[in-house]
Design brief:
Subcellular location: Membrane
Helix content: 10-25%
Shape: elongated
Number of helices: 6
Membrane topology: Single-pass type I membrane protein
InterPro entries: CRLF2-like_D2, FN3_dom, FN3_sf, Ig-like_fold, Il13Ra_Ig, TypeI_recpt_CBD
CATH architecture of the largest domain: Sandwich
Largest sheet: 5 strands, antiparallel
Number of domains: 4
Distance between the termini: 191 Å
CATH topology of the largest domain: Immunoglobulin-like
Pfam family, one: IL6Ra-bind
Radius of gyration: 59 Å
GO molecular function: cytokine receptor activity
Length: 435
């Protein structure tokens, strides 16, 4: 156990604590210093699209020696945004996102008076409208060539498939806010609209984008874009590419209406026999040349552009230009294949031609049938029975004709046959004698 505290010491400690408590105000402020009265009648109103305006009445009973200023700050969902501001004005106007709860508070302060304390905070909050999770998300905008802007977004996780988001835009100097008309549908929602802000100092106003639905159930959302950070040049256009000796000369046209000193280019050269050469940076100029190129090689060139940070804060590269090719490609593999293919083609064509000609000859000059075979088919075995007869000589057309044997015949008539006595008698047969 600890040592016992003497009674006198306890009494002294109690008196000290009482004096310290009496020297401070109930709210913890030092005693003897005047607390300023707070501003009154704080309320808010909506301005153009995403602008929220807070107004208040001045604090009463402020001495003339007080350098009165109003300190205000904005909290999003109860979290301070490091945006504390001091002003003599009786209002504050800021661009805010409408899909979150916005708290605003303000108090009175005497900046040059050490005898007074700031007033208590006066607070007000703005609740979001619509159901949670229905606001558009992933809003992304790009300003092309200082001429038109394309914004894309995704539907909220709790939004129905029939939700029709509508985009509105506004910037200082436009007058009334405008509604986008050219919508893009697909995996992402989007819309593009003309946006040409004339200026001579490259200082552009903030562009306010509001995306909402006509239904009260869909929560609106605001996005504020600094156009200098989202500008993107169009692709350059190659106007000439030529090869002089062992050098490639390239020339292109700058995109948009940007000043020449605000553009930086990258030129990429790729050949058909090796990997791409690392892109070359070209500043301000719209031409480039590549030395020591290989003969008998086809080269492909393309160009893209980016804005210099001295003119714009954007880091967007343009799309690559249309590719242009130059050079001739000598591929010996083609000639080798050609040399091997020609003889093979000729041989195949010759075989096909011979077969075709043989069939054609048969059609033009049909084979004459053998007469002997025809006769054999007609008479069958009869020809075989008469092989020894004259028919053989007839059939064998190749045998020489046999010499006919000529015999002399002598007619012998009996003289007695002519006498009357013998008229009724039969005549004797004639006798033929061969000579």
């Amino acid at each position: 156990m600890g040592a016992a505290v003497p009674a006198g010491a306890r009494l002294f400690l109690a008196l000290t604590l009482c004096l310290a408590a009496g020297a401070a105000e109930p709210d913890g402020r030092p005693a003897g210093r005047k607390v300023l009265p707070p501003p009154s009648n704080l309320h808010y109103s909506f301005g153009q699209l995403c602008k929220l305006k807070w107004t208040w009445n001045p604090a009463e009973g402020i001495s003339s020696g007080c350098d009165l200023k109003y300190c205000s700050e904005i909290l999003i969902n109860g979290i301070p945004q490091d945006n504390r501001e001091w002003t003599k004005k009786l209002f504050r106007e800021e661009d805010v996102s409408l899909n979150e709860e916005v708290h605003f508070r303000v108090r009175s302060e005497c900046k040059s008076d050490n005898t007074s304390e700031p007033s208590n905070w006066v607070e007000i909050f703005t609740p979001p409208k619509g159901a949670a999770g229905t606001a558009a998300v992933g809003i992304n905008c790009t300003w092309y060539d200082l001429e038109y802007m394309i914004c894309t977004w995704l539907p909220g996780r709790n939004a129905s498939a029939s939700t029709n988001y509508t985009l509105y835009y506004w910037y200082e100097g436009l007058g009334n806010h405008q509604q986008c008309q050219n919508y893009i549908y697909g995996d992402n929602f989007g819309c593009n609209f003309s946006l040409s802000i004339p200026n001579s100092t490259n200082v552009y106003p903030t562009i306010s984008i509001l995306i909402r639905d006509n239904s009260e159930e869909i929560r609106p959302v605001c996005a504020n874009k600094n156009p200098t950070t989202i500008v993107k040049p169009g692709p350059p256009r190659i106007v000439a590419v030529s090869m002089i000796k062992d050098e490639i000369h390239l020339e292109w046209q700058k995109p948009g209406t940007f000043p020449a000193h605000c553009l930086l280019y990258q030129v990429e050269l790729k050949d058909s026999k090796s990997d791409s050469i690392p892109p070359r940076d070209v500043k301000e100029l719209t031409k480039a040349q590549f030395a020591s190129v290989h003969p008998n090689t086809v080269y492909i060139v393309k160009v893209r552009a980016r804005l210099e940070t001295t003119c714009y804060s954007s880091s967007h590269w343009s799309d690559w230009s249309e590719e242009k090719s130059i050079g001739e490609n000598t591929d010996f593999t083609f000639y080798i294949v050609l040399i091997l293919t020609i003889p093979l083609t000729v041989a195949v064509a010759t075989i096909i031609l011979l077969v075709y000609l043989k069939r054609l000859k048969i059609l033009i000059y049909p084979q004459i049938p053998d007469p002997r075979k025809i006769i054999k088919r007609m008479f069958g075995e009869q020809i075989e029975d008469f092989q020894g007869g004259p028919g053989d000589d007839f059939l064998n057309v190749n045998k020489p004709a046999m010499e006919e044997e000529i015999s002399s015949l002598v007619w012998i008539e009996n003289p007695e046959s002519s006498t009357p006595e013998h008229e009724g008698q039969e005549r004797p047969a004639l006798q033929v004698k061969a000579l």
